């Protein structure tokens, strides 16, 4: 008699199924509707193929397309396999390497056949058509368990040298799986959908081709990486493509050139050359943040760029973070043509990748009493991190950046109140810029300093502060993220949502008991004894560079008037109005409006187009009539109609809009 398996469902019911049954069989037993809708399964919490048999009694939750995150990951993984088969069908001799799902699609790396050359975007339409043919064939995706030697031999026999190399490095005895679709297969952990036909042939698009080194090492062979975006249906794809088009229009690198804000070049990889217009934005943000920090009781300091390696060893960064640090020999370099530039005996220093250890050193100067706490030290601190060249991206990921950084030194009893106050400060700042946001708690990683008891306490303090601020709810997107904290502390993160729905992790606060211990920071308590302060690391903008990039893309370059580098341009129609234009310019500047004059002998439509491209918020057009009447014709960016008003009215309107939000009544 066949033994029956007990399959427990989320509603508490239990289904008895014969040995060899699959989640698909359970779905069919429940009803034809579910059998059609179910695409995968969670078995004892593990996401699996719906056709994979149970090994014994199990907890089962069926996955449908309504479980969007899981369904998308499965579909994108399948699209990657279909892409790989299509390429090998069309271009015999091409070798496959790796092809994961990504946040919005998938990619696969290929080694083109000898003599063929790299793939190009001209190849993509043909590959897409072959992918649709494979999807229409509705071929089952079948999971098989192989030994390592089977894998190595199969890949060698089929000319897949890259895969054979990878398989040879896999550990002995590990369960290795392949997924087969017809005659094509690849090594893969899965899971996958039941067949290629479960994909929507109109819900994907191949987007671009780039180069990629085998295993990410530039010493290895250059491969062709084909990217695609994949979704559950055509509507989702179209929405995504529209977002991508909008994102391309808003790209801060493109707008930065058009608005003459900044540039980057190879002579300073990952560092920004700020132009006068761009630095005006920076200065406005810096002034705004200084006012907010002054109002919240922070004291601004300035600390060195270069510190001895022994300080970084003591803080723990030398061991945990050295690969991202720029190190400097502490000796005069050899100036002769012969010999090593730096001796083997050189001591080492490092450009600071963060401000925290230096702030501890400031705190440690003199004796601090508990009566002085909390002490809030802020710094517009310039830092350097040795990011890989390939990871750099405009203002969003750089090597040199400036943080709106601060550290709060407080007693154990003050932690929750200080974090709550920071939460409310961050809320006020983000609201001033019009951002909605979510708050997330990043919990302890596997590799960390400090005891479990300290981590328990630090995590709970952050929860308590969010609760006291009234933000531990859906309105603020509250979520906990296991394993994503820093090596020394858990942290609250602020994820901003921009105008086209993208999210950006920006602000953070971390409760740290490790660094004060490692750097021997202390204060004198009420009992006359030494005690360790708790150190709260916090930032709101994150870095000025990245926050400016986000603002440019969020506002599509049409920055709020108070942030716009040039707030108004007085443009003449005829040269007879030049004197009046200069008079208007002087009055506007005297009122604190950042104004330029355009007196060129060009047609007014040309001037309007040029200043619109530069995203100047207001163009004040003056001709002979305006000069006689003391008026201006105001053209506002994004509006079709112009308004004629007196110069004084225009100044009052501009002054009101140009007032930073924190200074308005």
Task: Produce a short descriptive summary.
With 665 residues, the chain is an alpha+beta fold. The termini are far apart. It has 20 helices and 32 strands.
How are the elements arranged and paired?
Elements: E1 4-8, E2 14-18, H1 23-30, H2 32-37, E3 40-43, E4 46-49, E5 58-63, H3 68-90, E6 95-96, E7 105-111, H4 124-136, E8 141-146, H5 148-157, H6 161-168, E9 176-181, E10 184-187, E11 204-213, E12 222-230, H7 234-250, H8 252-258, E13 262-263, E14 273-274, H9 276-295, E15 299-300, E16 306-308, H10 309-315, H11 317-321, E17 327-329, E18 348-351, H12 356-363, E19 375-384, E20 400-410, H13 415-432, E21 436-442, H14 452-468, E22 479-481, E23 491-497, E24 503-512, H15 514-518, E25 523-524, E26 530-531, E27 534-543, H16 544-554, E28 568-572, H17 578-590, E29 595-598, H18 604-613, E30 618-622, H19 624-629, E31 631-636, E32 643-646, H20 647-658
Parallel strand pairs: 1-5, 15-19, 21-22, 28-29, 28-30
Antiparallel strand pairs: 1-2, 3-4, 3-5, 6-7, 7-12, 8-9, 9-10, 11-12, 13-14, 16-18, 17-18, 19-20, 20-27, 21-23, 23-24, 24-27, 25-26, 30-31, 31-32
Descriptive key words:
five-stranded mixed β-sheet, 26% strand, 665 residues, 20 helices, 32 strands, 34% helix
Task: Explain what this protein looks like in three dimensions.
This protein has 665 residues and is of the alpha+beta class. Helix content is 34%, strand content 26%. The protein has 20 helices and 32 strands. It has an eight-stranded mixed beta sheet with strand order 15-19-20-27-24-23-21-22. A five-stranded mixed beta sheet has the order 2-1-5-3-4, sandwiched between helices. A hairpin with a 5-residue loop joins strand 25 (523-524) and strand 26. The protein starts with a strand and ends in a 7-residue tail after the last helix. The model has no long low-confidence stretch (mean pLDDT 92).
